[in-house]
Specification:
Layout: H1 17-47, E1 52-68, E2 71-86, H2 95-98, H3 109-138, E3 139-142, E4 151-153, H4 159-162, E5 170-174, E6 177-178, H5 182-190, E7 197-203, E8 206-212, E9 215-219, E10 222-226, E11 230-231, E12 241-244, H6 249-253, E13 260-264, E14 267-268, H7 272-278, E15 287-293, E16 296-302, E17 305-307, E18 310-312, E19 315-317, E20 325-328, H8 332-358, H9 371-406, H10 413-428, H11 435-464
Antiparallel strand pairs: 1-2, 3-20, 4-11, 5-6, 5-7, 7-8, 9-10, 12-19, 13-14, 13-15, 15-16, 17-18
Helix pairs in contact: 1-3, 1-9, 3-8, 3-9, 3-10
Length: about 475
């Protein structure tokens, strides 16, 4: 959910460097997408010869600017987007302004339509332009995402293990998608948390039909689905200790740097990622860990604890090898195809999420985000993806803003286009929509929009600040012999 609002956090507890980066990223992302939107309205109105009184970057009090011809180009106090004031566009303007020859309402309806649709169109163009430029000059992506989905490891207690998936399985069908890549599997796993997903794997030359139920996992305040499996072609960190956190369960059990983890609760440890994910099923549950130290095997007993939101034992592994990346400069045609594919991908996933809402399979509160959610996503994008991450979230927000504004919701551009279309159809039939009907339509839409904004604001607060106490840890997997469950 895209809203043109911002929440400023005050108090020493919130004004950390991470919060400041989040706010800066939020203002850049939201400000750019909204200014681009208003620039579309502005350019269309100017091109059609309408009188534009104000083009403002920001809202509120005018801080600086200049006037050229009839337009005041200004920078305003609140950097939360911008607005354009076109003469005669506001129904409450004086009749003399509305009858000005260059006024919006004096122009043909197709002129009015072009002005209205230009804002969302500019957002969609920005959403296409960002991946196009990235593909043309800076394209890079994890190599495994474009490779066939072959499972490398299956952590204990994961959704993949519960579904009966084994290392070496090749996923030949996932959620109806034939021969999916890891990119497709990742996307459709994320939006199907807690929902059964039909899956077919190839094992020893046979195809086996299974049902996967991705487990819900919190990520940046959002609930996503997690299968837990590890792709075969991702280089993982070795299960070797680099440092031990003082006072942690690992330190209390006697784990030391350079120790290599061999067995965990009777299972061989293929890599650190497998071990880290398998720990999540053992909160406050004593386990046996077999390590290799200077050529000798040592058995340790310890109890994993919740540390910083995850179940851990408190050690840092040796760094993993770098993730193989595909880096290339695409041709103009290739970059255009990439831009279209990325935007279609986002639209398809969004439509699927809303379909799940209407089918009662997904909560609205887990799908819609307000300003706090957008700020959090912007901050995380910069934190984990740098400048590329910032542009990624900007393109995604711009696409959402463009499509959302085209919906026939009163007050939004789509609502105005809907009224304009009704008025044109009524005119052909010899009728006319009265100003009172239009005003009531807009008032009803404004009330609904305000309620929606209040909902997403409350939803954001409950997701990011109003946290319930920690849940009771689930029991670990049922008693397991050394050979497996």
């Amino acid at each position: 959910m895209v809203t043109v609002l911002a929440t400023l956090w005050f108090g020493a507890g919130f004004l950390t460097s991470e919060t400041l980066v989040m706010l800066a990223a939020f203002l850049v992302v939201l400000g750019t997408t909204v200014v681009v939107h208003e620039l579309g309205h502005f350019a269309a109105a100017k091109w059609l010869g309408m009188k534009v009184e104000v083009f403002s970057v920001g809202f509120g009090k005018r801080l600086a600017g200049f006037k050229w011809k009839e337009t005041d180009y200004r920078l305003s106090l609140l950097p939360l987007g911008g607005y354009v004031k076109i003469t005669g566009m506001d129904p409450e303007e004086e009749a003399a302004q509305q009858r000005h020859p260059d006024a919006y309402l004096m122009r043909p309806k197709w002129h009015q339509f072009l002005v209205l649709v230009a804002g969302p169109a500019m957002n969609i163009l920005l959403a296409l332009a960002i991946p196009f430029v990235i593909g043309l000059f800076f394209f890079k992506a994890p190599a495994y995402l474009s490779q066939p989905a072959i499972v490398g490891a299956v952590p204990i207690g994961s959704a993949a293990e519960e579904a009966g998936i084994q290392p070496g399985d090749r996923i030949v069908r996932f959620a109806g998608i034939e021969a999916p890549t890891w990119g497709k599997v990742r996307d459709y796993t994320a939006i199907n948390d807690g929902k059964p997903v039909p899956i077919t794997v190839e094992r020893d030359g046979r195809q086996i039909d299974l049902t996967l139920v991705p487990k819900a996992r919190q990520q940046a305040g959002n609930v996503i689905g997690d299968a837990g499996w590890l792709p075969r072609d991702i280089p993982a960190a070795q299960p070797v200790v680099a440092a031990v956190q003082p006072g942690s369960p690992a330190a209390q059990a006697g784990l030391e740097p350079q120790d290599r983890l061999i067995m965990f609760d009777g299972r061989p440890i293929p890599n650190f990622d497998w071990f880290k994910q398998s720990l999540q099923a053992y909160e406050n549950w004593p386990v046996t860990l077999v390590i290799e130290r200077q050529g000798q095997t040592v058995e340790l007993r310890l109890t994993p604890k919740r540390i910083d939101g995850e179940i851990r034992i408190g050690f840092i592994p040796v760094p993993p090898p770098p993730l193989p990346l595909i880096k290339e400069r695409k041709s103009v045609l290739g970059a255009a195809q990439y831009a279209i594919q990325e935007n279609v991908r986002f639209i398809v996933l969004t439509v699927e999420a809303f379909r799940q809402i209407f089918r009662g399979e997904r909560k609205v509160s887990e799908t819609l985000s307000g300003p706090i959610g957008i700020a959090k996503a912007s901050g995380d994008a910069v934190k984990f993806g740098g400048l590329e991450g910032l542009f990624f979230i900007m393109g995604l927000l711009s696409l959402n803003l463009g499509i959302f504004n085209l919906l026939p919701i009163p007050v939004l551009d789509g609502g105005h286009i809907f009224l304009l279309t009704l008025d044109a159809l009524a005119g052909w039939a010899g009728w006319r929509l009265t100003d009172e009907v239009k005003q009531r339509f807009n008032q009803a839409g404004f009330a609904v929009l305000m309620l929606l904004m209040v909902f997403v604001m409350f939803n954001d607060v409950t997701r990011f600040w109003w946290k319930p106490g920690p849940p009771e840890p689930p029991p670990p997997p049922v008693e397991k012999p050394a050979s497996g469950r």
